[in-house]
């Protein structure tokens, strides 16, 4: 009974942080929701025969490695605010409002935004470079060593592509994983409520997510950019270590 009350108190605390002390997390969530609603409207409007305006949005503002290499550098930020469906949106927005709000109250709005954008940008960039490298190697697979050729073939098999043969990454998950990483660095012994029910130490939670991302990436499970998650989490953790060195977090107390 006491444990249940503590969990409820933690949830109430997170909600209070969201409303009163976390403007950056709140506005990030609002922008994600507003953009998603625009996506749903554009989905119903035909641009050219067989393609909706949402398709145009995904190509212009989602992270497409082919277009990024052609100079569409804004995609490294804009892709974070696009989402595939309601479940994708709810997962990321919930993490930003609850976990993100707690982080923001501890390190401030500017540092919160740095963590979120750092995870998204670095995670997206590494994913895009990996995708471009795999495609480039696949075109010359006959000259590759057998082991590398097998790896490239497996990576190509798991690529989820558009009808034009391009990959597009969307979602704020890289930034969300960065928030988990910074929590693991600054507040390793604090509990994170998994699904608002099960408490788990921040560092344990981060390690579990990292292992899960590696496994899912190796086996190509799900229509998800797992490399973006992994790199985003590592980027957040390293940024958290830098903050800890400057006196932030629990470990310095």
Polypeptide structure, described:
This protein has eleven helices and four strands; from the N terminus they run ααββαααααααββαα. With 253 residues, it is mostly helical. The strands form two sheets. Strands 1-2 form a two-stranded antiparallel sheet. It has a two-stranded antiparallel ribbon with strand order 3-4. The radius of gyration is 19 Å and the shape is globular. The chain starts with a helix and ends in an 8-residue tail after the last helix. The mean pLDDT is 85.
Task: Give me some keywords for this one.
5% strand, 253 residues, two-stranded antiparallel ribbon, globular, Rhomboid-like fold, 69% helix, mainly alpha
Short description, anyone?
69% of the residues lie in helices and 5% in strands. The chain has 253 residues and is mostly helical. Strands 1-2 form a two-stranded antiparallel sheet. A two-stranded antiparallel ribbon has the order 3-4.
Uncertain segments are none
On the 0-100 scale, what is the average pLDDT?
Answer: 85
Q: Count of helical segments?
A: 11
Structural class: mainly alpha
- What is the CA–CA distance across the termini? 31 Å
Helix content: 55-70%
Number of strands: 4
Major sheet description: 2 strands, antiparallel
Layout of secondary structure:
Layout lengths: L1 H19 L2 H21 L2 E3 L2 E2 H9 L3 H4 L6 H4 L7 H22 L1 H30 L7 H13 L14 H14 L4 E4 L3 E4 H18 L6 H20 L8
Antiparallel strand pairs: 1-2, 3-4
Helix pairs in contact: 1-6, 2-3, 2-6, 6-7, 6-9, 7-8, 7-9, 7-11, 9-10, 9-11, 10-11
């Amino acid at each position: 009974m006491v444990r249940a009350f503590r969990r409820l108190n933690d949830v109430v605390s997170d909600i209070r942080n969201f409303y009163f002390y976390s403007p950056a997390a709140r506005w990030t969530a609002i922008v994600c929701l507003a953009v998603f609603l625009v996506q749903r409207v554009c989905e119903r409007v035909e641009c050219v025969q067989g393609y909706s305006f949402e398709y145009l949005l995904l190509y212009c503002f989602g992270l497409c490695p082919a277009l990024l290499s052609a100079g569409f550098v804004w995609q490294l930020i804009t892709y974070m605010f696009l989402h595939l469906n309601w479940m994708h949106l709810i997962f990321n927005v919930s993490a930003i409002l609850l976990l993100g709000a707690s982080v923001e109250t501890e390190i401030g709005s500017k540092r919160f935004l740095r963590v979120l954008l750092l995870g998204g940008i670095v995670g997206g960039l590494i994913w895009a470079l990996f995708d471009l490298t795999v495609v480039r190697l696949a075109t010359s697979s006959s000259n590759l060593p057998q082991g590398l050729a097998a790896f490239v073939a497996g990576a190509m098999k798991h690529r989820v592509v558009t009808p034009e043969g391009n990959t597009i990454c969307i979602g704020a998950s890289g930034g969300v994983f960065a928030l988990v990483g910074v929590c693991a660095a600054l507040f390793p012994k604090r509990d994170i409520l998994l699904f608002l029910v099960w408490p788990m130490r921040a560092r344990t939670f981060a390690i579990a997510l990292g292992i899960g991302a590696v496994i899912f990436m190796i086996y190509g499970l799900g229509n998800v950019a797992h490399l973006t998650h992994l790199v985003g989490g590592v980027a957040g953790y390293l940024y958290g270590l830098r903050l800890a060195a400057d006196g932030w977090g629990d470990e310095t107390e």
